[in-house]
Amino acid sequence: MTNRRKCGRRKSDYIIRYLFVTSFIAHVILGAMIVTGCPSALGTTIPLDVPGDKEITAPGGTVTIPVTSLVIEPVTLKVGQSQLAVTKILPADASDRRISYSIDDTDIAELTSGSVIFGKAVGTTTITVTSRAGEKTSTARITVETGEPEYIAVNSIAVSPKTLELAVGQSKSLAAAVEPVDATYGAPIWISEDNGIATVNPMTGEVTGIKPGTAEIRATAGGISDTCTVNVLSIPGTGLVLKDASYLSSDNLSGTTITLHVGETKTIYADVTPAEATNGAVKWTSSDSNLVSTGTPLLPSGSWLRQEVTIRAGSTPATEVTISAHVDGVTPDKTFTVNVIPGVADGIVLKDDQSLTSDNLTGTMIDMYVGETKTVYADVTPSTTINGTVTWTSANPSQVATTTPVLPPGSWLNQAVTIMAGSTPTSTPVAITAHIEGGVPDKTFHV
Question: What is the pTM of this model?
Answer without folding.
Answer: 0.46
